[in-house]
């Protein structure tokens, strides 16, 4: 501020004093109409003369869908508070949840449709009307369908409540090619648990007495209610053992931290199985009744002694043996936490299979403190017209056959990208993305750029100009979650609840932003597919709640409805969804397919002495790569750093805060070094989402380093999950030879 | 007994998620780069080996002290301890932004608001409490590490927690301001509060501050008069020095003490 | 066009190599099968309709195989519907329900 403007603070102060109510509206520039398409809390907590409106909704800053109450003052969302009645999120709202307002009123938001003017990625745009944008998109999609078949379009919905409509659009349009976020995240875990228990479990963290957490960072990568329940359980005496090459906050708050040699977790779990079996620490009756393949497993784990595992993992054998005994003593209320992001190694599924097998030996399935089966939530799937059949179309996904057991609904980003670059087995030339940013979340950014280079048409629907949108031909603005009426969400909060939650707009959509369902309907109309999208959200939500007569009232009053369905013992008297109809220690299908029916240990590639293994990880402020530029959250961390052990840094002449260059076989990035005693000497780490190419993301554009540009794109052989810990990098002080 | 709003914090529950900081920032429109609250940490110490090492995260904010050195430092009476609730507040209308109170706080709880040109700090979310809501940081906390209430009300949660648990107050030995944030058990770090700096007016009345006072007197004299008038007629308690005995003779801790 | 057929064959070849080990030999295309299942079976086999709800994961792979192998659908109430289906239609439907059966790698409801 200039000194000539000396009067300003005074007048500003008086302004605040005499027109305090106007300040909130002034913050966004334009006042919002005071119309709310919302369920409002009938009485709310409106004590005294509080005139603000309170709107129940669910958070959309990450995938958790925590319950919130938006406080709307004069048409402006002034504050988001946790919904105290929302059991899944335990009546809390984290930093990201609070920063939802900064997403809503983000100056970087996309405001109207933009059509590319210059070259892809050059950042030259022309504002167009919705009519022009939709006509153009429909025409491009039609051309692609005619030229390359309908499978020539790839659809990539992010983890969003309206993404289900993108899936529907793809099937109505006639493309099998749908790739979601999951193959850059957790599908290897899903694969492993599905192939052991026949379903993907929830973890009853709250009632567990002993938890081993490997490859998961629950106090930073927040999952509700697990993260909160973990602390509550710890307060009640639960023991937590963490394996991680990094001293994460979870490690810092655990009873034990074992800085495991990266890529050797499988050895640790095989050794746990070895101890539990050889010392007969399992329940023999349970094993006989519920498990299949105990004989094979017993023979299989004999070589995997704790002493052997010590050499691989660098975790002392005495600890491994003790942990196995302690786990077994606490069973069945003990567990190997199933984890979430499991996109790490080329054998990610087998690593998680080993974790699942130890869980099976603990007998914790469908039990308090163990792994939980899915409860009944009770939402109805609205009946919509069947997708048409196109005879003149490809018969398979383009990435088909590139991994042994891929998931149809999720696909594999790594393999799909390869297939598109190679043009095999057939050309895919169009890409529709919705709130997905694989430019930052998928390993090997150079390859993603190459894939985009070969496309005829790319359209991105997003809230802000992500790096992926930055590369598109057409960018369409979507509203944030606070401006949307969404399908009802059915949620299971582990042991906390099975519930139904609602998201209604706290304020109307800003600028020219439109929800993706509206966009898809408009496109369908232009592609003569209108009859398949002839419904609106109100009808859809009503249909969803058809079988839950009490839900509507509960949603209006509390913002959440609970289904008092069975929690434990769901599998009593039932068979498992596996070939043997039991929990499979030894997987029959794997054997038939020529895969290892029980995980076989293969050591990770050795790290060259002049290199480091690059690992990924989360913190509580950022959701993958989507909230780094958020004006509020960015103040917690304004750029990423390279975590490096002081001894390693010393060897390279690197001091704390020094600029360094990190090189991998696929990329080269610069950032500042942060000397951390809490990381292994052979490992380096950096947070995701930085070093953005997009100039539309102030704060992260050209700031810090993009980890996706450094990671090589290996894949888990079974699931096609990206394997993001297989890259070795060199580190040098910037300017040094 | 007089109301004394206070917090009892179980810092062993804190996971350093920054929820409280974000909530406070939005609720109180705290400008970029400034905070009304914080989470301290004792850092990593692997001297005893890696396996069983632990870290502490310690959430905090203005301690609403019984001996508020900031109140003593304020030349205009803008900073005062409210008799109604024991909360240390800044009256925006009287604050001239001189900043004397900033180094007078051992906890660094105050900052100069770059736009309002006044000093700002935590007031336990005065406006939220007025409508019956808890402070933003308390309600948003995932692990509910912060408990809030009147410690002089024996039926309050905080009073019960104080009674049933071993608690500590984090103070600088040379400036025991008798803070009203109590920490359960073995919290860390303990050595971070600094010695309160008494104001030396010359040092703190820099050039711009002088001009500001001129502005206050010259341009906004009406506002100041209005304030004075309000204080005279509405009979607000005189903002200023609070008696040290408001905690009813409760022992003052510099280290750990058992509350019976 | 020849290229497209070649690609198609390649795709089919991959399906076969992928699944031959697990599935019976005479299965068709599961995507077509899903379409046909919805068109021919689901109209009646769902909640609130005349027949019990039926999804791929209502039965195990072996159960589905038996139903299609024995060709005993003459006994079913919907035998008239079955007769209308060609052999390749039936093979497609079997591929679909088998691929998403109760004990398949990806058990699924028909949605």
Count of β-strands of chain C: 0
Contiguous low-pLDDT stretches of chain B (5 residues minimum) are: 202-207, 213-260
DSSP helix count of chain C?
5
CATH topology of chain C: Cytochrome Bc1 Complex, Chain D, domain 2
- CATH class of the largest domain in chain B, anyone? Alpha Beta
Account of the 3D structure:
- Chain A has 737 residues and is α/β, with parallel strands linked by helices.
- Helix content of chain A is 29%, strand content 16%.
- In chain A, helix 6 (163-173) packs parallel to helix 20 (516-526), helix 7 packs across helix 15 and helix 10 (265-278) packs antiparallel against helix 13.
- The longest helix of chain A has 19 residues, at 130-148.
- Chain A is globular and about 70 Å long.
- By secondary structure, chain B is an alpha+beta fold.
- Chain B has helices at 19-27, 69-73, 101-104, 126-130, 136-140, 157-164, 201-204, 207-218, 221-234; strands at 5-9, 37-41, 57-61, 79-81, 88-90, 111-112, 119-120, 146-150, 166-168, 181-184, 256-258.
- In chain B, the strands form four sheets. Chain B has a five-stranded mixed β-sheet with strand order 8-1-10-9-11, with helices on one face. A two-stranded antiparallel ribbon of chain B has the order 2-3. In chain B, strands 4-5 form a two-stranded antiparallel ribbon.
- Chain C has helices spanning 2-19, 30-41, 61-70, 79-84, 87-99.
- In chain C, helix 2 packs across helix 5 and helix 3 (61-70) packs antiparallel against helix 5 (87-99).
- Classes of the chains: A alpha/beta (737), B alpha+beta (260), C mainly alpha (111).
- Chain A binds chain C through residues 149, 176, 194-195, 198, 381, 386-387, 389, 394-396, 400-401, 404-405, 407-408, 425-426, 577-579, 581, 589, 592-594, and chain C through 4, 7-8, 10-12, 14-15, 17-18, 21-22, 29, 31-32, 35, 38-39, 57, 60-61, 102-103, 105-107, 111.
């Amino acid at each position: 501020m200039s000194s000539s403007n000396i009067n300003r603070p005074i007048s500003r102060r008086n302004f605040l004093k005499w027109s305090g109510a106007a300040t909130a509206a002034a913050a966004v520039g334009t006042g919002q109409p005071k119309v709310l398409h919302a369920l409002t809390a009938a009485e709310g907590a409106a004590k005294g003369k509080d005139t603000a409106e309170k709107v129940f909704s669910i958070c959309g800053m990450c995938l958790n869908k925590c319950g919130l109450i938006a406080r709307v003052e004069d048409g402006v969302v002034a504050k988001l508070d946790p919904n105290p009645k929302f059991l899944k999120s335990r009546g809390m709202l984290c930093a990201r949840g609070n920063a939802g307002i900064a997403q809503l009123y983000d100056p970087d938001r996309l405001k109207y449709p933009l059509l590319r003017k210059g070259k892809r990625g050059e950042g030259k745009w022309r504002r167009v009307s919705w009519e022009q944008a939709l006509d153009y998109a429909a025409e491009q999609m039609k051309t692609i369908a005619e030229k390359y078949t309908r499978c020539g379009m790839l659809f990539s919905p992010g983890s969003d409540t309206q993404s289900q409509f993108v899936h529907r659009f793809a099937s109505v349009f006639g493309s099998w090619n749908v790739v979601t976020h999951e193959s850059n995240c957790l599908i290897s875990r899903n694969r492993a648990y599905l192939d052991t228990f026949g379903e993907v479990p929830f973890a009853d963290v709250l009632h567990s007495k002993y938890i081993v957490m490997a490859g998961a960072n629950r106090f930073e990568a927040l999952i509700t209610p697990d993260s909160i329940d973990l602390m509550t359980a710890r307060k009640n005496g639960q023991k937590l053992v963490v394996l991680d090459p990094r001293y994460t906050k979870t490690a810092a708050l655990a009873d034990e931290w074992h800085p495991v040699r990266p890529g050797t977790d499988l050895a640790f779990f095989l050794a746990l199985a070895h101890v539990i079996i050889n010392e007969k620490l399992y329940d023999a009756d349970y094993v006989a009744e519920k498990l299949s393949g105990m004989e094979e497993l017993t023979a299989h784990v004999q070589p995997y002694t704790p002493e052997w595992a010590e050499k691989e993992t660098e975790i002392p054998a005495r600890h491994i043996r003790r942990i196995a005994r302690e786990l077994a003593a606490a069973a069945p209320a003990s567990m190997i936490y199933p984890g979430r992001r499991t996109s790490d190694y080329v054998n990610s599924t087998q690593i998680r299979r080993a974790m699942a097998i130890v869980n099976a030996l603990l007998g914790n399935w469908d039990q308090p403190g163990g792994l939980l089966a899915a409860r009944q939530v009770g939402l109805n799937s609205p009946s919509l017209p069947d997708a048409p059949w196109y005879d003149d179309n490809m018969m398979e996904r383009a990435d088909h056959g590139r991994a042994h057991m891929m998931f149809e609904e999720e696909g594999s980003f790594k393999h799909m990208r390869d297939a598109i670059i190679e043009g095999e087995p057939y050309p895919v030339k169009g890409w529709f993305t919705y709130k997905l940013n694989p430019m930052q979340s998928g390993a090997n950014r150079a390859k993603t750029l190459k894939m985009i280079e070969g496309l005829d048409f790319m359209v991105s629907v997003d809230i802000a100009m992500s790096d992926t949108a930055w590369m598109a031909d057409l960018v369409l603005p979507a509203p944030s979650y606070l401006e949307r009426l969404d399908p009802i969400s059915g949620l299971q909060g582990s042991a906390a609840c099975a519930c139904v939650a609602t998201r209604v707009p706290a304020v109307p959509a800003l600028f020219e932003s439109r929800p993706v369902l509206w966009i898809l309907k408009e496109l369908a109309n232009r592609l003569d597919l209108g009859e398949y999208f002839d419904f609106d959200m109100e009808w859809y939500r009503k249909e969803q709640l058809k079988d839950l007569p009490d839900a509507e009232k509960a949603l209006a009053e509390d913002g959440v409805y609970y289904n008092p369905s069975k929690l434990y013992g769901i599998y009593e008297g039932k068979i498992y969804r596996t070939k043997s109809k039991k929990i499979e220690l030894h997987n029959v299908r794997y054997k038939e397919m020529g895969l290892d029916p029980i995980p076989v240990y293969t050591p990770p590639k050795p790290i060259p002495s002049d290199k480091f293994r690059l690992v990924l990880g989360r913190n509580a402020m950022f959701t993958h790569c989507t909230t780094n530029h958020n004006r509020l959250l960015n103040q917690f961390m304004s750029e990423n750093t390279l975590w490096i052990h002081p001894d390693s840094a010393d060897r390279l002449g690197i001091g704390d805060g020094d600029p360094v260059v990190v090189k991998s076989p696929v990329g080269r990035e610069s950032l500042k070094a942060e000397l951390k005693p809490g990381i292994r000497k052979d490992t380096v780490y950096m947070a995701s989402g930085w070093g953005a190419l997009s100039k539309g993301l102030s704060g992260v554009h050209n700031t810090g380093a993009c980890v996706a540009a450094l990671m090589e794109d290996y894949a888990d052989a079974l699931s096609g999950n990206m394997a993001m810990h297989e890259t070795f990098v060199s580190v040098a002080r910037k300017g040094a030879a | 007994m007089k109301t004394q709003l206070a917090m009892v914090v179980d810092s062993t529950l804190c996971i350093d998620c920054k929820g409280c900081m974000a909530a406070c920032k939005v609720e109180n429109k705290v400008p970029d780069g400034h905070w009304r609250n914080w989470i301290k940490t004792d850092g990593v110490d692997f001297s005893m080996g890696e396996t069983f090492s632990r870290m502490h995260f310690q959430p905090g904010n203005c301690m609403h002290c019984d001996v508020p050195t900031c109140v003593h430092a304020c030349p205009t009476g803008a900073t005062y301890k409210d008799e109604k609730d024991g909360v240390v507040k800044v009256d925006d209308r009287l604050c001239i932004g001189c900043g004397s109170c900033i180094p007078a706080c051992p906890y660094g709880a105050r900052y100069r608001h770059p736009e309002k040109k006044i000093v700002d700090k935590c007031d336990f979310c005065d406006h939220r409490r007025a409508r019956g809501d808890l402070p933003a940081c308390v309600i948003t906390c995932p692990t509910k590490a912060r408990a809030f209430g009147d410690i002089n009300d024996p039926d309050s949660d905080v009073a019960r927690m104080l009674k049933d648990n071993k608690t500590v107050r984090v103070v600088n030995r040379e400036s025991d301001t008798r803070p009203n944030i109590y920490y359960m058990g073995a919290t860390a770090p303990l050595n971070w509060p600094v010695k309160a700096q008494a104001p030396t007016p010359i040092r703190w009345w820099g050039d711009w501050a002088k001009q500001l006072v001129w502005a206050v007197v010259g341009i906004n004299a009406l506002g100041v008069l209005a304030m004075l008038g309000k204080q005279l007629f509405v009979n607000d308690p005189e903002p200023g020095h609070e008696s040290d005995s408001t905690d009813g003779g409760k022992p003052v801790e510099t280290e750990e003490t058992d509350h019976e | 066009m020849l290229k497209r057929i070649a690609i198609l064959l390649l795709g089919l070849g991959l399906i076969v190599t992928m699944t031959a080990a697990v599935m019976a030999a005479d299965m068709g295309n599961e995507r077509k099968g899903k379409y046909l299942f919805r068109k021919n079976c689901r109209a009646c086999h769902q909640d609130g309709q005349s027949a019990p709800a039926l999804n791929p994961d209502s039965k195990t792979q072996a159960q589905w195989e038996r139903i299609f192998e024995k060709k005993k659908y003459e006994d079913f109430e919907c035998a008239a519907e079955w007769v209308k289906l060609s052999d390749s239609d039936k093979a497609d439907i079997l591929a679909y329900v088998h691929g998403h059966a109760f004990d398949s790698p990806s058990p699924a409801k028909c949605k």
